Amino acid sequence: MKINQTGVSGINPYQKQLNKLHDPKKAIEAPTDKLEISSAAKGMQEVSKMTKERMEKIASLKQQVAKGEYQPQPEKIAEGIVKFYKK
């Protein structure tokens, strides 16, 4: 008895996978990850920088008060209060 080849016996089922791996065009067109930082997040980063500076200033003032070296300047304090409430 003789068996003739059918239409699917000559197809390599793994050939499509190999073609995908070795196709340079597909590798270039592959989507890439993208990260965008919102303006609100950028603002929060700026606030954290100001917080660090403020904490350093507070620590410096605490040291001056503890040593008795702190001399308040009433004119600058008054200017700051007026500026705050004019907003």
Notes on the protein architecture:
Belongs to the FlgM family. Keywords: Bacterial flagellum biogenesis, Cell projection, Cilium, Flagellum, Repressor, Transcription, Transcription regulation. With 87 residues, this protein is mainly α. The chain has a domain at 39-87. 63% of the residues lie in helices and 0% in strands. It is rod-shaped.
Brief write-up:
The protein is mostly helical and 87 residues long. The protein is 63% helix and 0% strand.
Query: Can you tell me the overall shape?
Result: rod-shaped
Low-pLDDT segments: none
Specify Rg, calculated over alpha carbons. 36 Å
Strand content: under 5%
Tell me about the biggest sheet?
none
Order of helices and strands: HHHH
Residue-averaged pLDDT? 80
Please give the alpha-carbon distance between the first and last residues.
101 Å
How many helical stretches? Answer: 4
Structural class: mainly alpha
The total strand number stands at: 0
Percent in helix = 55-70%
Region (Disordered): 1-24
Protein name: Negative regulator of flagellin synthesis
Family: Belongs to the FlgM family.
Keywords: Bacterial flagellum biogenesis, Cell projection, Cilium, Flagellum, Repressor, Transcription, Transcription regulation
